[in-house]
Amino acid sequence: xxxxxxxxxxxxxxxxxxxxxxxxxxxxxxxxxxxxxxxxxxxxxxxxxxxxxxxxxxxxxxxxxxxxxxxxxxxxxxxxxxxxxxxxxxxxxxxxxxxxxxxxxxxxxxxxxxxxxxxxxxxxxxxxxxxxxxx
Length: 135
What we know:
- This protein is an all-alpha fold.
- It has two domains: 1-34; 36-134, Helix Hairpins.
- It is built from five helices and no strands.
- α3 packs antiparallel against α4 (59-89) and α4 (59-89) packs antiparallel against α5 (95-134).
């Protein structure tokens, strides 16, 4: 066993594995506290989960909704990390920094739009049916 493989073995321990979860939760907590869009998404996530429970959506609908929300939230977290990295390496306004930030933001917009359409396709018929029953 050479020194390189010994060093690699150390890095693959349980402590590193546990720390990776800690770092992930630290990043999520930072984003929720400091990024308004992520906080709004978390509130939306809670609302959608309550709506799914109230309307008794199917297992497939749960999968589709949670997958869509996960993609939007994950993309927003990537957008936040891209923006922070660009701010670190390019504190001055630069056209390429703007392109990177704008396109990262556009990816969030695309996923958010698709998630909204998915939500409408699943929930609007259920809401219309529910309104019809209470009248």
